[in-house]
């Protein structure tokens, strides 16, 4: 539940060794670089100026060219498998292969080929779009057996290819035009639209235009086209074939460069890493001959950083004090059991350096609430199996898979206790042993006893919120904020415990369906009422303690008791946990519906029903419900739980290190010396 201890350090050295030091630090991956306080350090070293962070133009251009070539060749790369599509894997190279490619492979020829093919591909796409446009434009003009070059106005006659949008029939339109100064030759007619050639004498232009204003028409621009529409379309189709064939040839040529693409990926990672080294220089302050660099390390890495500094002739390392208002970066450290749940904390926000790491505090709750959202042992089994299958295929951090595996195992347990194994699938198997096992471990059936699920969800919600208040009390006491712990947290615990004592010692608990009977002795009602009353008065008196006027103190006290994080806010929090019941019962309902449709309702053989059941269960049952359960479980942690004690806002510890996105270079194992 603790955070990694951090130490701020200062590195000073001769400017000639700065670039090599940055490369060594990048290889080590232990220093979180931070910007130097220029004003403070300038007092000690007056000539310091910010270091340049401009990579060489050649390096920047090379990285850009490599990226462009990779993107082009990726279009024609072998399609990834379903598993690789979900979790992309990095290309693996041995250290020897990596060194050979970086030192001896000339990428310029491949980049040149890719650029040439890319330009040709873009030109072919442009040509294809142009042909499509011509075909689309002329598709309704094929009945015009005239060279389009001849369809143009003369000195005395205006000729216009036109599309008229009208509800009139062809015959009705011809009648309209017969009594006008405009001649019309219909080329193509369909419902609501007519393509035609309009012609009128220019001497009658005013009268003709006035007549045409009565129609919804648009002139079609056919300038620049040669030949009849039919011939142009036929020629376009022939060109299409030619373009298609050339694109296929380009695709074949590009696929032959697959081996080169893999080398380009390695080179991109390598040179991009070098560029990041150059960009890291922005964190330094320089004089004409010296530089200063600062950052944060784990205290356990101090010895390693000392060793790096000692390997340089001019570099010295010293501990540094944080600047005023500067917080150290944060890295979580948890036991193996809790480590998968760090993803939940990181997704919200990292804790500040003085806060508790909430990861171990939320772990059990997250797994339990997720399981209650699914409440199906079969779905939990599939989820756990998928997580295990994907483990060997994932390189690097596997925490999210371990999180899903843990959630899957918990779901199996909760599903068994609620008697749900792919819904009511056991009822369709007619296997007595399965039915006997299901009933032996089942505690209750949510579909038959929803009120039990209601009480369980609400009860867990109350305990969860109380747990959050308890954590905040601990934090306030730790930071010696005793009045805050008493007024803002403890009094609310007293208030709600008093309400619980009052409810559960009277028949109100039965009327509210919180229990089938009164659970506490009647004499506890009076202490409960007193506790709630006293807590109410104290909350109103103390909640506005930071306000300046008595009126504002009183007003804030009433508001804090009721709406501003008060009674109604707590009620809203408690009721939010009913989503556990809603989602859990929805999962069971969907599973039962899938079973009924595939194994009972459809008039097909049972084996075909099973074939339909499998994808429906995976897609509708597992995928949708797992996604819904994950999102709603996160919400309960972030909105209802975290707001009681957790602020967050810490800066994650991100050491300056090589970040190869596409490739993985396997290091040669070190052998012991004599």
Any descriptors?
four-stranded antiparallel sheet; 25 helices; membrane; Alpha-Beta Plaits; 674 residues; V-type ATP synthase subunit I; alpha+beta; six-stranded antiparallel sheet; proton-transporting ATPase activity, rotational mechanism; disordered C terminus; 12 strands
Précis, in short:
This is V-type ATP synthase subunit I. This protein is an alpha+beta fold and 674 residues long.
Record the SSE blueprint.
Elements: E1 6-14, H1 18-28, E2 32-34, H2 38-44, E3 49-50, H3 57-74, H4 82-86, E4 91-94, H5 95-104, H6 108-138, E5 157-165, H7 170-178, E6 183-190, E7 193-201, H8 205-212, E8 216-219, H9 229-255, H10 258-279, E9 285-286, E10 290-298, H11 302-310, E11 316-319, H12 342-348, H13 359-374, H14 377-390, H15 399-417, H16 425-429, H17 432-441, H18 450-478, H19 482-504, H20 508-511, H21 525-543, H22 550-562, H23 567-576, H24 578-601, H25 606-641, E12 663-666
Helix pairs in contact: 3-6, 3-10, 6-9, 13-15, 13-24, 13-25, 14-15, 14-25, 18-19, 18-23, 18-24, 19-21, 21-22, 24-25
Number of continuous helical runs: 25
Helix-strand makeup class: alpha+beta
What does the average pLDDT come to?
Answer: 86
Number of strands: 12
Quick one: biggest sheet? 6 strands, antiparallel
Distance between the termini: 42 Å
Oligomer state of the chains in this structure: single chain
Give the % helix: 55-70%
Percent of sequence in beta strands: 5-15%
């Amino acid at each position: 539940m603790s955070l990694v201890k951090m130490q701020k350090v200062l590195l000073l050295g001769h400017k000639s060794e700065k670039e090599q030091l940055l490369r060594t630090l990048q290889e080590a991956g232990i220093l979180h670089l931070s910007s130097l306080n220029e004003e403070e350090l300038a007092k000690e070293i007056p000539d310091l100026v910010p270091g340049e962070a401009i990579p060489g133009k050649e390096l920047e251009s090379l990285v850009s060219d490599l990226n462009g070539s990779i993107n082009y060749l990726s279009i024609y790369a072998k399609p990834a498998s379903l598993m690789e599509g979900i979790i992309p894997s990095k290309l693996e190279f041995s250290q020897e292969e990596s060194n050979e490619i970086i030192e001896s492979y000339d990428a310029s020829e491949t980049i040149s080929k890719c650029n040439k093919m890319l330009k040709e591909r873009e030109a072919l796409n442009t040509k294809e779009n142009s042909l499509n446009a011509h075909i689309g434009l002329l598709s309704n003009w094929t009945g015009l057996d005239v060279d389009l070059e001849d369809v143009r106005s003369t000195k005395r006659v205006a000729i216009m290819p036109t599309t008229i949008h009208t509800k009139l029939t062809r015959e009705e339109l011809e009648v309209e035009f017969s009594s006008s100064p405009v001649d019309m030759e219909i080329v193509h007619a369909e419902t609501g639209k007519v393509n035609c050639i309009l012609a009128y004498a220019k001497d009658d232009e005013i009268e003709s235009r006035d007549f045409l204003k009565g129609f919804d028409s648009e002139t079609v621009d056919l300038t620049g086209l040669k030949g009849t529409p039919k011939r142009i379309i036929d020629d376009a189709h022939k060109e299409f074939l030619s373009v298609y064939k050339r694109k296929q040839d380009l695709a074949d040529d590009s696929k032959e460069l697959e081996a080169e693409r893999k080398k380009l990926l390695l080179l991109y990672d390598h040179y991009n890493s070098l560029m990041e080294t150059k960009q890291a220089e922005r964190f330094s302050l320089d004089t004409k001959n010296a530089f200063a660099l600062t950052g944060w390390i784990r205290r356990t890495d101090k010895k390693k950083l000392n060793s790096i500094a000692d390997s340089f002739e001019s570099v010295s390392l010293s501990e540094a004090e944080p600047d005023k208002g500067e917080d150290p970066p944060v890295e979580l450290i948890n036991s193996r059991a809790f480590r998968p749940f760090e993803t939940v904390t990181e997704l919200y926000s990292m804790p500040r350096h003085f806060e508790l790491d909430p990861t171990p505090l939320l772990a059990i709750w997250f797994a339990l609430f997720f399981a209650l959202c699914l409440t199906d042992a079969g779905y939990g089994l599939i989820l756990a199996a998928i997580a295990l299958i994907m483990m060997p295929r994932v390189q690097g951090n596997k925490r999210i898979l371990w999180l899903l595996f843990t959630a899957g195992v918990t779901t199996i347990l909760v599903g068994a206790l609620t008697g749900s194994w792919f819904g009511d699938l056991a009822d369709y198997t007619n296997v007595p042993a399965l039915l006997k096992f299901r009933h032996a471990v089942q505690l209750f059936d949510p579909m038959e006893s929803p009120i039990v699920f209601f009480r369980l969800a609400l009860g867990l919600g109350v305990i969860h919120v109380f747990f959050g208040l308890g954590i905040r009390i601990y934090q306030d006491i730790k930071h010696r904020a005793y009045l805050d712990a008493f007024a803002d947290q403890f009094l609310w615990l007293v208030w709600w415990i008093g309400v619980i004592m009052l409810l559960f010692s009277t028949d109100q608990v039965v009327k509210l369906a919180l229990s089938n009977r009164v659970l506490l002795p009647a004499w506890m009602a009076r202490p409960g009422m007193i506790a709630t009353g006293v807590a109410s008065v104290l909350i109103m008196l103390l909640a506005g303690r930071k306000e300046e006027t008595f009126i504002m103190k009183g007003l804030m006290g009433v508001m804090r008791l009721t709406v501003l994080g008060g009674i109604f806010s707590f009620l809203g929090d408690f009721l939010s946990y009913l989503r556990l019941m809603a989602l859990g019962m929805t999962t069971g309902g969907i599973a039962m519906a899938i079973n009924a449709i595939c194994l009972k309702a459809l008039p097909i053989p049972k084996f075909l029903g099973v074939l339909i059941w499998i994808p429906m269960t995976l897609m509708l049952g597992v995928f949708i419900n797992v996604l819904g359960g994950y999102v709603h479980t996160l919400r309960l942690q972030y909105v209802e739980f975290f707001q009681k004690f957790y602020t967050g806002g810490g800066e994650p510890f991100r050491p300056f290190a090589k970040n190869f996105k596409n490739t993985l270079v396997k290091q040669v194992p070190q052998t012991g010396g004599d």
